[in-house]
Automatic annotation (TrEMBL):
This is Glutathione S-transferase. InterPro entries: Glutathione-S-Trfase_C-like, Glutathione-S-Trfase_C_sf, Glutathione_S-Trfase_N, Thioredoxin-like_sf. Residues 2-81 form the GST N-terminal domain. Residues 110-239 form the GST C-terminal domain.
Length: 311
């Protein structure tokens, strides 16, 4: 069986979400650290240009976006479930809200001048400038618009008060007594705020939220071992992509198997990945691509939030 390899960096909110998935499921995995800004030559050797963090590798199969990574980890270990039986739709909907609305608020708060200064306090000025320029490029060309910091500050107490009330009245987690993907998707934006000394005060007035965050933090990140990027690329090169499901091919764009296509996110980080369409179903798009370093890989994308078109 191919081992789980997570390509990530420590300060990434979505990487923290993925690490918590691995911790909740008590899985073992290999950790490949990637740069927080472009270029990312080792990562893009595997993904073909997808630059967002994190990416999960299983042999020669590359999974993009934590929404799809969550479903892949459900296949790896079903219990505890990220999408509890009978609550699949509400768990997915709450997760999307956390990944979008709460995340955008956390980004806006972290990009205030005092918050940026605090985050990069011990680093050269050029590092902060490079990070800001990279994130500006990341959010250009997509449907996501940057939330103004004053608006985020005005709305933040509303969001936190709603969460505080929910947790006071409805058990230890968002869907009751057991955690789900919704909790992890709401946690990581708050973790991003809590990690910045200049804005962590914005969580102080919400004891139930802080207690909930402590419970989530206690899931840990599973058992990880460091792996170098070259080793991960070697593993991909020497592996064979998993056999694809035999379910009927479903294309919403009238595409045919083996068509040359591009796939890209629609909100931000809209760098297209080109390859041969080898599988498409209701919730997943898979393209095959050849790389001179990684060999033949299958790159997997979720349906929601991604566009597939003829190359």
């Amino acid at each position: 069986m191919n081992e789980l390899i997570l390509h990530h960096y420590p300060q990434s909110p979505f990487a923290e979400k993925a690490r918590l998935m691995l911790g909740l499921k008590a899985l073992s995995w290999h950790s490949v650290l990637i740069p927080p800004i472009m270029p990312k030559p080792d990562l893009t050797a595997l993904t073909g240009g997808y630059r967002r963090t994190p990416v999960l590798q299983v042999g020669a199969d590359i999974y993009c976006d934590t929404a799809l990574i969550a479903r892949r980890l459900e296949r790896e270990k079903a219990v505890p479930a990220l999408f509890p039986e009978g609550q699949e739709a509400i768990a997915a909907a709450l997760s999307q809200y956390g990944d979008q609305v709460l995340f955008q608020h956390s980004v806006a708060l972290n990009f205030q001048p005092n918050a940026l200064e605090a985050r990069f306090a011990e680093l050269p000025e050029q590092v902060m400038q490079s990070f800001v320029a990279d994130r500006k490029a990341l959010f250009s060309g997509g449907t996501a618009s940057r939330l103004e910091s004053d608006l985020a500050l005005a709305q933040w107490p509303v969001l936190m008060s709603q969460l505080e009330t929910q947790l006071q009245r409805n058990g230890e987690f968002l869907l009751g007594d057991e955690p789900s993907i919704a909790d992890l998707s709401w946690y990581h934006p708050l973790w991003f705020v809590a990690a910045n000394a200049a804005i962590s005060i914005l969580l102080e007035d919400y004891p139930a939220v802080r207690a909930w965050m402590a419970r989530i933090h206690d899931f840990g990140s599973g058992a990880s071992a460091r792996m170098e990027a070259e080793e991960a690329i070697r593993i991909a090169r020497e592996a064979t992509p998993e056999e694809l499901p035999e379910r009927g091919f479903v294309s919403t764009r009238g595409l045919s198997l083996d068509a040359q296509v591009t796939v890209c996110p629609v909100d931000y980080g809209c760098d297209p990945v080109a390859g041969r369409l080898v599988h498409e179903e209701m919730d997943e798009i898979v393209i095959a691509r050849e790389d001179e370093r990684a060999g033949l890989v299958h790159v997997h994308f979720p349906r929601i939030g991604y566009r597939v078109e003829l190359a």
